[in-house]
Amino acid sequence: MSYPLSALMPKDQIRRARQDEAGEIARLFLISSDGLAAYIWSKMDMPGLTLEEVGAARYARTGTAFSFENCHVALRWGEIAGMVHTFPIEGSADDSEKNDPVLRPYAELEDPGSLYVSALAVHEAYRNLGIGSRLMEHVYGIARSLGLQRVSLICFERNEAALRFYRRQGFQEMDRRPIVPHPTLHYGDGDAILLARNC
User: Fold this and answer.
1) Nearest to 84 by CA among 10, 7, 165
2) Which CATH number covers residue 120?
3) Pairing between β-strand 71-76 and β-strand 172-178 as defined by DSSP bridges
4) Which of 2, 51, 117, 121 shows the smallest number of beta carbons within 10 Å?
């Protein structure tokens, strides 16, 4: 007897991302970054490519922090509903970030020794279903498996919905810096806030 594919797979899954999903990762990263990814990708020397294509090329790489290898995707009935991108913060930011006035605030807010969540995003059609919370629970498990005691992330002060979500998750403010406005950023004022929680 044959069964429809949906009957053979769990409704919700979280798994490691695949290289061929780099384009979807880029789309979700653009959602999560509030314009910061657009700024970074616009500075990359890839003429003729759209921002999404630049992001896809960035996340198709291997052996670097900003890679599909550090992404996990949430699936609902086999479709990508959201993703999270994490990597351990092992030292201070590189000089290129510190010397870029727009990126400097984020470089100064790094939390060495933590697992850093650089992106968490859920497609609009799948929001308010608990997918973001399940992805964060997955992140805490990753941190524990790596022997890391903290998870950290940076959130824009003006992104009030995201800030409420992370505070419900138990994150507390560790530090903050004023953002440097840029046309790509969704917010023209306020602070970038370093949040962390033990796991």
Assistant:
1) 165
2) 3.40.630.30
3) unpaired
4) 2
